[in-house]
Amino acid sequence: MGANAGIRRVVTTHDANGTAIVQSDDMASNVRVRATTGTRSTLLWSTDTSPAQYSDGDRGALEAPMAPIGHGSVFRIVEFPPGDPGGRIDSAQIAAEMGLHHDNGGRRPPRHPAMHATDSVDYAIVLSGEIDMLLDEVEVHLRAGDVIVQQGTNHAWVNRGAEPCSIAFVLMGAEVPVFAASRGRK
């Protein structure tokens, strides 16, 4: 999946008789490129409730924030270009570009300028390439085929390789965690 390859998106639904049909079969067009990092994000679908409602409209064409609204969901594929943007950006700049709060929701201060957190449970699958996931105190190297379940944690993605890394993300709105010193959190 290269930077200009595009993503085919097939959406199904039902006709008036309840028969399964193809609602649309086209190239996903809701693509955003972050100016700060060059990261390319393609929104495929989003919902604003759970359980979700079926839709005859194109819920991939909406202006969806980085994190889901309330108890909704967001499905996107993100391509991270090679390179560490850390020296070129600051936390407030990237948070603003991603539509997130700069205060990090009461979590620990970021150790990398691209570090952020969302109030969601995220399922992610590395589709191609390699990437490092930075957490508060550790790093995890990930390769194509690896799966991540992220539960509202501080994290940053750094592609130290020579090729782009593509990751499919499904974010589901979650209750905001409470970080209290009495629980051993800083």
Ends distance: 39 Å
Q: Helical element count?
A: 1
Determine Rg (CA atoms, Å). Answer: 17 Å
Number of strands: 11
Core attributes:
single chain; mainly beta; Jelly Rolls; 6-stranded antiparallel sheet; 3-stranded antiparallel sheet; 1 helix; globular; disordered C terminus
What does this structure look like?
It is a single chain. This protein has one helix at 91-98; strands at residues 8-14, 20-27, 31-33, 40-47, 73-80, 120-128, 130-134, 139-143, 147-151, 156-158, 165-173. The longest helix is centred in the middle third of the chain and has 8 residues, at 91-98. The strands form three sheets. It has a six-stranded antiparallel β-sheet with strand order 3-4-5-11-6-9, with no helix packed on it. The protein has a three-stranded antiparallel β-sheet with strand order 8-7-10, with no helix packed on it. It is globular, with a radius of gyration of 17 Å. It has 186 residues and is mostly beta strands.
SSE inventory with pairings:
Layout: E1 8-14, E2 20-27, E3 31-33, E4 40-47, E5 73-80, H1 91-98, E6 120-128, E7 130-134, E8 139-143, E9 147-151, E10 156-158, E11 165-173
Antiparallel strand pairs: 1-2, 3-4, 4-5, 5-11, 6-9, 6-11, 7-8, 7-10
In short:
This protein is mainly beta and about 190 residues long.
